[in-house]
């Protein structure tokens, strides 16, 4: 028993009551003057901050951090500070599950965000459903994940956002005679290749060559010789940044010059352009957002995000950062909606608010369908022209005409 408690117990009953009231009043006053973390709102984030996906996971995390900072500067949620509890899934599904269990059961977070690739997002979504905690995934593409009936799962990206602009540009701009679709042996890349072929078939464009390769392939020479032998004039490659870098360099070594090379994953970034130098010219990629490429009408909001991000991290943001920012902004908007209605911030109320969400952000007009998919997530096709990412499709978002066909290597 503490000294204060012993002294109170030794007093006469009337004095005991007076001392109790005084102590209680003091504690209430202290709580009012010095608010504790009990008045804050805890959001959990699970992303691959180490392991093979650390680069992308850290980019997701930085976008989320900026969104939380900006929200807290504006009063948080009805005056309550948002506290972000970030966890590293180490790029491993088993670790992602344990981190989600910790955040939902022990830390009692009101919502979850973050995540990169569906092999990690899927296990987190299952735990979120178990605890009835809404989860807005920052980077998720596969159709299968949203086909499971999980009312607590939402995501700000989807594969269809890649397919529609790719299919449109191939049909309307490039009109290839002999098209090759190459894809890395990963679930997302495989699904993209299959869906793109199906979309093109409805528009009377046949894929002449559909070829799978292993991510991190050390030498693409056999594949390049096959492309040349089949007289391929347009190549779509659903590989990743290192695959594009090696493949394009070996195209040059073997003097293979397709009219267009399109990499939906990993080309539309300033880092890729800087790493490839002149060899990046005329290549195509896709992106949902980049500095200077934003939803019409969101230019001011986009500049604010770029400024806040650049001040914190000393470099400009990219599209992966924006995916993290968008997922966190969705949660913040939903929580503010619940608070404004005078309802407690429970998982069910936040989930219901997310299902009704309708807001315009720099990356997309964000609203969700019944499966938690974003209704309006669309990429633009960009071409690297003079070292810059220039939107060339769809026409309503184009900043310049595509340079097509690309000059042969010997004429660049």
Overall average pLDDT: 91
Oligomer class: single chain
Structural class: alpha/beta
SSE order, one letter for each helix or strand: HHEHEHEHEHEHEHEHEHEHEHHHEEEE
List the topology elements:
Elements: H1 3-10, H2 13-33, E1 41-47, H3 54-73, E2 82-88, H4 93-106, E3 111-116, H5 118-131, E4 135-139, H6 143-147, E5 153-155, H7 160-174, E6 179-184, H8 187-201, E7 207-213, H9 221-229, E8 234-238, H10 241-253, E9 260-263, H11 270-276, E10 284-287, H12 299-313, H13 319-340, H14 347-355, E11 359-360, E12 365-366, E13 380-385, E14 388-393
Helix pairs in contact: 3-12, 3-13, 4-5, 7-8, 13-14
Write a short abstract of this structure:
By secondary structure, the chain is an alpha/beta fold. It is built from 14 helices and 14 strands.
Describe this structure in words.
With 412 residues, the chain is an alpha/beta fold. The chain folds into two domains: 40-157 and 297-366, Response regulator (Rossmann fold, 3-Layer(aba) Sandwich); 161-287 and 380-411, 3-Layer(aba) Sandwich (Rossmann fold). It has 14 helices and 14 strands. Strand 1, helix 3 and strand 2 (82-88) form a beta-alpha-beta unit. Helix 3 (54-73) crosses helix 12 (299-313), helix 3 packs parallel to helix 13 and helix 4 (93-106) packs parallel to helix 5. The N and C termini lie far apart (85 Å). 43% of the residues are buried.
């Amino acid at each position: 028993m503490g000294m204060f408690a012993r002294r109170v117990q030794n007093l006469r009953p009337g004095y005991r009551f007076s001392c109790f009231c005084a102590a209680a009043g003091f504690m209430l006053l202290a709580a009012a003057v010095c608010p504790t973390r009990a008045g804050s709102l805890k959001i959990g984030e699970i992303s691959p901050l180490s392991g093979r996906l650390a680069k992308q996971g850290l980019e997701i995390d930085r976008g989320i951090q900026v969104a939380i900072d900006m929200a807290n500067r504006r009063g948080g949620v009805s005056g309550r500070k948002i506290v972000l509890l970030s966890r590293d899934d180490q790029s491993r599904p088993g670790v992602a599950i344990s981190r989600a269990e910790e955040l939902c059961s022990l830390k009692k977070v009101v919502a979850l965000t973050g995540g990169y690739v569906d092999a990690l997002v899927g296990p987190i979504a299952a735990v979120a459903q178990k605890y009835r905690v809404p989860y807005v995934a920052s980077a998720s593409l596969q159709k299968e994940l949203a086909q499971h009936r999980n009312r607590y799962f939402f995501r700000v990206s989807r594969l269809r956002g890649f397919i529609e602009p790719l299919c449109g540009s191939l049909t309307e701009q490039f009109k290839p005679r002999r098209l090759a679709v190459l894809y890395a042996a990963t679930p997302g890349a495989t699904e993209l290749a299959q869906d793109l072929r199906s979309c093109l078939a409805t528009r009377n464009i046949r894929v002449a060559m559909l070829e799978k390769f292993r991510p991190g392939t050390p030498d693409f020479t056999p594949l390049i010789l096959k492309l040349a032998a089949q007289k391929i004039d347009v190549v779509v490659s659903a590989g990743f940044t290192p695959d594009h870098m090696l493949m394009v360099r070996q195209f040059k070594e073997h003097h293979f010059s397709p009219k267009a090379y399109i990499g939906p994953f990993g080309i539309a970034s300033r880092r890729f352009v800087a790493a490839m130098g002149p060899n990046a010219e005329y290549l195509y990629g896709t992106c949902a957002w980049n500095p200077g490429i934003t939803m019409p009408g969101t230019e001011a909001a986009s500049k604010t995000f770029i400024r806040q991000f650049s001040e914190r991290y000393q470099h400009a943001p990219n599209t992966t950062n924006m995916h993290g920012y968008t997922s966190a902004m969705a949660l913040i908007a939903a929580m503010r909606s619940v608070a404004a209605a005078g309802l407690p911030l429970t998982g069910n109320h936040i989930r219901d608010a997310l299902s009704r969400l309708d807001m315009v952000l720099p990356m997309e007009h964000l609203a969700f369908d019944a499966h938690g998919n974003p209704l309006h997530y669309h990429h633009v096709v960009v071409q690297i022209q003079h070292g810059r990412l220039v939107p060339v499709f769809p026409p309503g978002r184009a900043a310049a005409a595509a340079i097509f066909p690309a000059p042969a290597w010997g004429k660049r």
